[in-house]
């Protein structure tokens, strides 16, 4: 092998290594900025353990959604229907429970069934009808939101106090929701890294034809990823219902969970083209977003300005990874 | 031979809407045999292999494994029967490790968990089997390997599947000479192990070197079958159906070669160093070298796509430095990319639109699409007519044309701009034998009309047959110059930098 | 696909039969259905009001086609419409004489938004979907900031002229809404630019194969930025018309980005680039409006529109994919 080729072969390896550590570096930068912001404004009361938990706690719904989004993005698909599904689940659960503790289990069951059906339909449209996943899930989002608005227009139903444990309860002195989030992340990591299904996810996202020729049923893998994503969104919806004590048809759209979950996954180093990335990057991405939000709060940024900055930050975050590609993007 | 063939195809027929792709094709391969399958592009080789590997189902005929008829409904069925295909486009996942790739879709698990250790051990064993164990790390990412090693991973995958039949579809297309030799040795080893190898190629050299038997396909039928490898000319005759007398165009005569049109002195960038050469009007200058030697990098540097950092370039007597293709094109350089579908064509657009692309790119944005400073629609049609582009209509989508005709449409794009220098990268890749001759003659006509032609090709006989002068590149620089018709051996010595070519 | 199968000696004389885009048949069928439901539709006041209502979406779809054919998406147009309406109301401050300069400022904002979208996609290499979604969030935030959160009231009458005014006593058709004139003029200009100029053909080429276009000398960044600018300018014009239709609020433009994409896809534009037509996209917009009109006649509530639109979007793409597969790529 000639020197010239050896040089050009080593270059991509460097790139891969950089991208592996980028989420951690970004997280470090966000933590530093947060600390500096607190110190600069003299608000050192925000620099303690409880506030740290509060910072993470603010992004549980986003985090759970993003874990699901990681699966679909890894198979080179995408899901823009999560925000509508979150709203639909929150409303469904709170209407079914309607303050009655006995209805908690049926409500959770109904929500999970709804989520599974939405994920299944998304997956089927993408695989069987060959519809671009962006369009398929945007269409699904319109359908869900339309159905939902036809029935409710404001907070509906109520969540019994027992169910509010999900959002407000403590276990071993730690918020239950945070433990739940990290447990879910751990399970997702385990599935992706140590099971054949996880391996298939990376294969399908990396090269669908290669996966098919190797005997992997690519359609099933993509459908499964969509079901997982929708189920995660369902859990996020249940969490929000528990936290807000009721469900409303706009809570998903208000949280911009569709776009933010994608942004968080991308910041975590998972490639939109699929086949590369992982859960811990996504977790880092979620924490980065929480910190940015907290920095705005510490600095007392106006809500509308915050929205403007948020749009810019999402684009900047994607640009951070994308700007080095030589490829022409669409 | 009385032995039952490990794989046999009998009377295979396959029809697609409007086309008979295969008609009554029979084909068999014994264990421990290399059977070459040759034919022009479109002769039906790929269709036959896709039937063999379960991608397509045949309309007529039977596939027999060890004498028993089988029916493959999915590639997985064929894999299970011990038939592995290594396609031209590798089916590896670049972001996964060698081990993960070899066990793709059939990972070893223990208690629901992947057994990484067992898979790594098996990978190492298979790689060691043909001496690649020291060269390829089972934990390396495939994207970190060079093309030849990636191909070895493909072969290792087939071996670990206990493939009885291994189909290799033009496996040397992306390999340089030394890598080719390694591949040939691996094929020899596979034969010794008793694997039946079906080797698809259009390079006669490889047939002579490797094959035990040869089957020639032409227009979807078996045109000839040889139980011993005959003279290459006999195979070519069967492929083409006639003798190819004027395959290459005659070389340029002394008075056809004019003044220097382009020269580079001390050119260099991250992939190139100390590039010195001159190109004269009216000549075809060939560039030979192994893959990665810097030939394409040089073309892209001259074209401004990956500019020179050092040195000077003169075009028609003026000093130039291009940092963008548009500057180079404006100054009179045209380039035909090697990857026609990926870098040359806009497949959904019409033949005419593909031809008009460059002239339009230099017109005003809101100027008429039918007419610009360089040509108009009828002028473009005239150019396409002159090159005898065969299309039902120039309004037809270009993806429906054959490779040779697509290439001509790209040439038309440049002719409209009347370039001083035209760079052809792999001009005949994926083009059938008849159309190749057309491209060589076209290049010669352009040179006679006064352009300087640079031809970069990995097909060494083609460079020797078509170029008036040959520069050999190695490790990013020009190491030797040869005259027209130099010997293949002499050029390979310079290209590899070896003192003698191993047998 | 060999030379043998194509053996026409004189290629120029055999022209392909023009294929009629199915969207025109669908539109015709829908219009017949509307007429059956409401015979008054054949009166000028019926169809002219229909065209007037469809005008903003038609203009928006015609602009969106540029971005789709160039290989991207523009999801920022809805929020740009909102910004145009809110911004115009803040700038004009009920002063009728301000109309012209306010419109110029809005076109300037559109130019800026399109430039930023295009530059972010071309130079920061952010996929257009993310870039324009980010722009959508940002513009919505700016609209809120500018108006302090709760704008209300109407734009001055001179500004609403474009969206609202009907020219009366026109021979043959009795009335002619200014919005329809704007639609016709903008539609024709965008048709001409897309299908009769170098820029239009280069947009096709860039969306089809950007690398090939680049190596053929196409100034791909300039072409792609132009597509985003055209889309943004069309959104500004649509916003000016919509400002005439109703009151000022921060959700005037909500959902228009998806409607525009749906209309373009209905018109046969190929997602991820290379193929699309301005007249067909306008027909797609009219089709979508016709469907909504029918739903109105049938007395279905507003949210049903959303559901139907989602289903149409998926069905249109699924059908296009099915046809492409059947005709062999």
UniProtKB/TrEMBL annotation, chain A:
Entry keyword Signal: no
Topology in the lipid bilayer: Multi-pass membrane protein
Chief subcellular location: membrane
Molecular function GO terms recorded: transmembrane transporter activity
Keyword Cell inner membrane: yes
Annotated localization: Cell membrane
Transmembrane segments: 20-40, 52-74, 80-97, 104-125, 131-153, 165-192, 221-241, 262-292, 304-323
InterPro entries, per database record: ABC_transp_permease
Keywords noted in UniProt: Cell inner membrane, Cell membrane, Membrane, Transmembrane, Transmembrane helix, Transport
GO cellular component entries: plasma membrane
Domain of life of the native organism: Bacteria
Function: Part of the ABC transporter complex LsrABCD involved in autoinducer 2 (AI-2) import. Probably responsible for the translocation of the substrate across the membrane.
Subunit structure as annotated in this protein's UniProt entry: The complex is composed of two ATP-binding proteins (LsrA), two transmembrane proteins (LsrC and LsrD) and a solute-binding protein (LsrB).
PANTHER family named among the record's database cross-references: ABC TRANSPORTER PERMEASE PROTEIN YPHD-RELATED-RELATED, AUTOINDUCER 2 IMPORT SYSTEM PERMEASE PROTEIN LSRD
Name of protein: Autoinducer 2 import system permease protein LsrD
UniProtKB/TrEMBL annotation, chain B:
GO terms assigned for molecular function: ATP binding; ATP hydrolysis activity
Keyword annotations from UniProtKB, A to Z: ATP-binding, Cell membrane, Membrane, Nucleotide-binding, Repeat, Sugar transport, Translocase, Transport
Protein topology in the membrane: Peripheral membrane protein
Residues covered by the ABC transporter domain: 7-244, 252-500
Principal subcellular localization: membrane
GO cellular component terms, A-Z: plasma membrane
The family this protein is said to belong to: Belongs to the ABC transporter superfamily.
Name this polypeptide is given: Ribose transport system ATP-binding protein
Gene source species: Aquamicrobium aerolatum DSM 21857
UniProtKB/TrEMBL annotation, chain C:
InterPro entries reported in the protein's UniProt record: ABC_transp_permease
Record-linked Pfam families: BPD_transp_2
GO molecular function per UniProt: transmembrane transporter activity
Major localisation: membrane
Keywords assigned by UniProt, alphabetized: Cell inner membrane, Cell membrane, Membrane, Transmembrane, Transmembrane helix, Transport
Localization: Cell membrane
Keyword Membrane appears in the UniProt entry: yes
GO cellular component, one term: plasma membrane
UniProt topology in membrane: Multi-pass membrane protein
Transmembrane stretches, start-end: 20-36, 57-86, 98-122, 129-150, 170-193, 225-248, 280-300
Subunit description: The complex is composed of two ATP-binding proteins (LsrA), two transmembrane proteins (LsrC and LsrD) and a solute-binding protein (LsrB).
Its biological purpose: Part of the ABC transporter complex LsrABCD involved in autoinducer 2 (AI-2) import. Probably responsible for the translocation of the substrate across the membrane.
Name under which the protein is recorded: Autoinducer 2 import system permease protein LsrD
């Amino acid at each position: 092998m000639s020197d010239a080729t050896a040089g050009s072969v080593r270059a991509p390896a460097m790139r891969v290594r950089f991208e592996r550590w980028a989420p951690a570096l970004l997280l470090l930068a966000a933590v530093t900025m947060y600390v500096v912001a607190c110190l600069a404004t003299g608000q050192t009361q925000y620099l303690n353990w409880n506030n740290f938990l509060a910072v993470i706690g603010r992004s549980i719904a986003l985090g759970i959604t993003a874990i699901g989004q990681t699966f679909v993005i890894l198979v080179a698909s995408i899901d823009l229907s999560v925000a509508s599904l979150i709203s639909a689940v929150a409303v469904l659960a709170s209407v079914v429970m309607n303050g009655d503790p006995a209805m908690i289990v049926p409500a959770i069951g109904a929500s999970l069934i709804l989520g599974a059906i939405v994920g299944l339909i998304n997956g089927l449209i993408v695989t069987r009808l060959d519809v671009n996943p962006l369009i398929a899930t945007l269409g699904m989002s319109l359908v869900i939101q339309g159905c939902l608005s036809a029935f409710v227009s404001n907070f509906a139903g109520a969540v019994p106090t027992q169910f509010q444990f999900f959002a407000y309860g403590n276990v071993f002195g730690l918020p239950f929701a945070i433990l739940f989030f990290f447990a879910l992340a751990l399970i997702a990591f385990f599935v992706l890294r140590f099971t054949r299904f996880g391996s298939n996810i990376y294969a399908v996202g990396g090269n669908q034809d290669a996966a098919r020729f190797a005997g992997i049923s690519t359609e099933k893998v993509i459908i499964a990823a969509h079901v997982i994503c929708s189920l995660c969104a369902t859990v996020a919806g249940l969490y929000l219902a528990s936290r807000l004590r009721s469900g409303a048809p706009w809570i998903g759209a208000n949280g911009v969970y569709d776009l933010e979950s994608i942004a968080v996954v991308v910041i975590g180093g998972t490639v939109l083209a699929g086949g590369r990335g992982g859960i811990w990057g996504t977790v880092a991405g979620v924490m980065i977003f929480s910190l940015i939000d907290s920095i705005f709060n510490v600095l007392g940024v106006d809500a509308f300005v915050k929205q403007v900055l948020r749009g810019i930050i999402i684009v900047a975050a994607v640009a951070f990874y994308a700007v080095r590609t030589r490829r022409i993007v669409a | 031979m009385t032995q039952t063939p490990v794989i046999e195809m009998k009377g295979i027929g396959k029809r697609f809407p409007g086309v008979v792709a295969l008609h009554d094709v029979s084909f068999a391969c014994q264990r421990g045999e290399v059977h070459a399958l040759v034919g022009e592009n479109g002769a039906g080789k790929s269709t036959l292999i896709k039937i063999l590997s379960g991608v397509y189902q045949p309309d007529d005929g039977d596939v027999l494994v060890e004498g028993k008829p089988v029916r493959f409904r999915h590639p997985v069925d064929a894999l299970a029967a011990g038939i592995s295909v290594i396609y031209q486009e590798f089916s590896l996942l670049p972001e996964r490790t060698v081990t993960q790739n070899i066990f793709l879709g059939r990972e070893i698990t223990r208690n629901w968990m992947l057994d990484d250790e067992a898979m790594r051990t098996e990978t190492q064993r298979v790689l060691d089997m043909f001496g690649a164990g020291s060269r390829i790390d089972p934990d390396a990412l495939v994207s970190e390997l060079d093309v030849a090693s990636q191909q070895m991973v493909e072969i290792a995958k087939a071996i670990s599947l206990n493939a009885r039949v291994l189909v290799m579809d033009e496996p040397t297309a992306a390999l340089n000479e030394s890598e080719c030799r390694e591949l040939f040795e691996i094929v020899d080893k596979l034969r010794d192990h008793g694997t039946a190898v079906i080797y698809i190629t259009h390079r006669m050299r490889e047939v002579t070197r490797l094959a035990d038997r040869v089957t020639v396909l032409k227009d979807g039928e078996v045109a000839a079958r040889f139980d011993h490898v005959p003279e290459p000319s006999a195979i070519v005759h069967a492929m083409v159906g006639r003798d190819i007398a004027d395959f290459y165009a005659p070389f340029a005569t002394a008075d056809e070669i004019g003044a220097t049109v382009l020269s580079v002195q001390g050119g260099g960038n991250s992939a190139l160093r100390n590039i010195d050469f001159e190109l004269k009007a009216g000549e075809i200058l060939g560039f030979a070298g192994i893959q990665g030697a810097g030939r394409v990098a040089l073309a892209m540097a001259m074209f401004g796509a990956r500019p020179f950092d050092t040195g000077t370039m003169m075009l028609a007597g003026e000093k130039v430095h291009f940092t963008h293709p548009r500057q180079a094109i404006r100054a009179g350089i045209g380039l035909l990319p090697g990857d026609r579908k990926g870098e040359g064509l806009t497949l959904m657009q019409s033949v005419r639109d593909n031809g008009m692309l460059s002239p339009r790119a230099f017109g005003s944005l809101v100027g008429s699409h039918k007419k610009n400073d360089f040509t108009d629609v009828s002028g473009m049609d005239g150019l396409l007519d002159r090159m005898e582009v065969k299309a039902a209509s120039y309004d037809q989508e270009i993806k429906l044309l054959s490779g040779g005709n697509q290439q001509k449409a790209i040439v038309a794009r440049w002719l409209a701009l009347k370039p001083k220098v035209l760079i052809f990268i792999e001009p005949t890749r994926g083009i059938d034998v008849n159309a190749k001759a057309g491209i060589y003659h076209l290049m010669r006509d352009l040179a006679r009309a006064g352009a300087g032609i640079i031809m970069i090709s990995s097909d060494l006989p083609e460079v020797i047959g078509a170029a008036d002068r040959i520069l050999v590149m190695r490790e990013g620089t020009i190491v030797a110059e040869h005259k027209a018709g130099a010997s293949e051996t002499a050029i390979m010595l310079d290209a590899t930098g070896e003192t003698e070519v191993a047998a | 696909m060999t030379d043998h199968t194509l053996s026409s000696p004189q290629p120029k004389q055999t022209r392909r039969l023009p294929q009629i885009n199915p969207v025109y048949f669908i539109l015709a069928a829908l219009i017949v259905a509307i007429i059956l439901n409401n015979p008054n539709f054949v009166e000028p006041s019926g169809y002219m009001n229909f065209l007037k209502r469809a005008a903003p979406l038609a203009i928006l779809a015609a602009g969106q086609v540029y971005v789709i054919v160039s290989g991207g998406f523009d999801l920022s147009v809805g929020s740009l419409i909102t910004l145009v309406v809110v911004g115009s109301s803040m700038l004009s401050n009920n002063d009728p004489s301000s109309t012209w300069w306010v419109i110029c400022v809005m076109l300037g904002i559109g130019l800026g938004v399109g430039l930023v979208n295009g530059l972010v996609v071309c130079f920061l290499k952010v996929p257009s979907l993310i870039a324009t979604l980010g722009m959508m969030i940002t513009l919505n935030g700016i609209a809120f900031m500018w108006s302090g959160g709760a704008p209300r009231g109407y734009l001055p009458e001179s500004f609403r002229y474009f969206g609202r005014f009907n020219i009366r006593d026109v021979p043959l058709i009795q009335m002619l809404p200014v919005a329809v004139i704007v639609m016709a003029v903008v539609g024709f200009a965008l048709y001409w630019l897309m299908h009769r100029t170098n820029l239009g053909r280069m947009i096709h080429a860039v969306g089809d194969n950007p690398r090939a276009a680049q190596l053929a000398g196409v100034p791909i960044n300039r072409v792609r930025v132009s597509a985003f600018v055209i889309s943004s300018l069309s959104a500004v014009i649509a916003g000016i018309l919509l400002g005439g239709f109703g009151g000022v609020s921060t959700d005037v433009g909500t959902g228009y980005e998806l409607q525009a994409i749906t209309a373009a896809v209905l018109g046969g534009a190929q997602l991820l680039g290379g193929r699309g037509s301005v007249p067909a996209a306008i027909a797609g917009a009219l089709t979508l409006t016709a469907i909504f009109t029918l739903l109105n006649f049938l007395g279905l509530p507003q949210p049903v529109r959303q559901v139907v639109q989602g289903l149409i979007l998926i069905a249109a793409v699924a059908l296009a994919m099915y046809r492409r597969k059947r005709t062999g790529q």
